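Worked example 2:
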Amino acid sequence: MKIIHCYFDETELIIDGNKCLALAGVFIEDEYVESIRESLLELKAHLLDDQFTGKKEKSRIFHFAEDTQGIKSIIIDSMRDKEYRAYIAYKDLNTTYSETYISIVEKILYDRLQEKYYCKFQIYFEQNNKVNQVKMGIKMENMITRIRENHPDLEFPSLEKVTKDNILSAIPDYVLGVFRSYHQIDRAPYMGLNFDKLRNKIRLIVDMKNGMYYSRSKPYIIHPIQKSVLLPVTSSNISSKSYLSPKSYWFRQVSHIVALSKNYFLKIISR
């Protein structure tokens, strides 16, 4: 029986002004697991030995939130040719964290289990004390029961807790990392590029609130600085560091206008 390994990770982010929880499930067929593991471990060893890209905190490398941009670029490039499929789903955190988390897990798993009912699934979660494990178990049992009505041979998946020490958990961590950065207001161009590099590996993105599904044939596109354009001018905004930061949208626009005006008046004076 073919074995499919699924690694989950989660993150919180702001989408359309709402706080959301997003999960990524990365599915790897058993025949590719060891080659991917060895390749990532080899890359990790290389980065730790490289005086220009390595870090002193060796135990924390291969973590999107902590890696430098140079390291991120190298890791993202290395993930582009690996044999895995990533699925992302997100929804507003308007119920309890645990309920939201469990519902997203079900959304990602249900179709995959139903499609590959003849396979054995091994599912890996990181320790998360916010999630009610009893309710998670009940949800899994109910889901398997429903699928078995059409596919009675489906085996109950094995569930295992993992830590960041498992190098394969870096894949969903990075998939979610580029996804979260892609939503960042006034994102830098490289953030969009990082997401684009992994688009081919992300088979589906589900907006559970609006019932929208995005795939390679229907791309998920968020235009940068859309929130900044709509940002109202208030005293709190004016006094905030982000509003007048040299990297902010407004600062760049004002600077551009000033530069154009300066050039215009210089031309008039020179006549």
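The two ends are 83 Å apart (CA to CA). The chain has nine helices and seven strands.
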